[in-house]
Amino acid sequence: PVELNASKVRKATWTELFYDLVYVTVIARLGETLRGEHGPPLHLQDYALYIITLWVFWKTTNEYATLFMNDDLYHKLLFAVYMLALITVGMHIEGGPESHNGAGMAISFLGLRLIMLFAYARVVFAYFPKREAWHTTFWTAVHVCFFLCLDSGIYLFAYYDTGNRRRCFWTVVVYNHMTSIRGLELVFSFGSSPQPCLLDDSYPDGQAEGVGADSNSADSEFKRVILQLRYSQWCWNTLIRYVQIVVM
Could you tell me the residue ranges of all domains in the chain? Predict the structure, then answer.
């Protein structure tokens, strides 16, 4: 079963270490393509797009691993499939989004998002019966699933629409910064049951959510309000900048 890692200290598994090596290989391949070692050099704007996209994808899986990863057979198979999809990303880097490899890159990105959608959907089903006690975990996972579905739809559209493929890729990158786990958990932990934020160190090792956590104090609530306001302001600023870029 999927369970939240309640301990402050968690060691990386061998699966995660190997997964990071695959990411390093893909990024190295991206650098080789930028230098033009295997063909025409990749444009700098496409290099920036791909490197930021890979970072966003790594961040998504890293947040999932921090919260729910353990070294069982399910997670080994899940990350093995994810690594295979990641390898296909490295196979379609040359030429950029609007080249003959662009469609393959869109499908590769789509596959990566669908894998994480499956992982978070499993979290949703696991916590649905206890959603009242685990309010933040459940609703954060629900909304992550929603945004992963949105990612998948955009990448599917990008597969068919060659002319707007680069813009579709940038769209996913920009709004994924505005829908991070940190931002979502702040929204759903505010004013809810006494459950600490998922990525906070506000409860002792081995202690479950909402059990003895000092999240009802005035100081804790004040910090959450301030963080939520800062997060909302940052979201709007990022969105406005993106609109300005698209319009200009």
Answer: 14-247
